[in-house]
Specification:
Radius of gyration: 17 Å
Structural class: alpha+beta
Order of helices and strands: HEEEEHHEH
Number of strands: 5
Strand order of the largest sheet: 3-2-1-4-5
Strand content: 25-35%
Helix content: 25-40%
Shape: globular
């Protein structure tokens, strides 16, 4: 049996990827700050995004923000990896948003989509 790699942190990868982008056209109308408070057991992991005309900066600051997003860290890992949809999570109350909701609506554009569908059989149908 081969040694397994420790799974990566989808949330850290998501925010790291945002920080590495140049100006993002999907966020060109977004101006403001969004703080994510992600509960992981007894601790809260914080991420602060500053958005200005498509430019994104990311920090771990515990600062006031125009929009505050609260979620369970495990759920946000699923959102950050495309396994869960942020809008659906908000609608069912698993993610709460306080403040300028339009910032989160704009930010939803940069979350990854669902993983590619499973391989299809030769006739184009999924195996049972």
């Amino acid at each position: 049996m081969s040694a397994r790699r420790k799974p990566e942190d989808p949330t850290a990868e998501f925010f790291g990827g945002l920080a590495e982008r140049d100006r993002d056209p999907l966020l060109q109308k977004a101006d403001g700050t969004v703080r994510f408070d992600l509960k992981d057991g007894n601790r809260v992991e914080r991420w602060l995004l500053s958005l200005e005309n498509g430019e994104v900066s990311v920090s771990r600051a515990n600062a006031d923000a125009d929009c505050l997003v609260r979620a369970d860290k495990a759920l946000f890992d699923e959102i950050a990896s495309g396994k869960a949809n942020a809008t659906a999570a908000v609608l069912r109350g698993a993610v709460t948003i306080d403040g300028e909701m339009e910032l989160m609506v704009l930010l939803q554009r940069v979350f990854p989509g669902p993983p590619a569908r499973r391989a299809r059989s030769r006739n184009g149908r999924r195996p049972a």
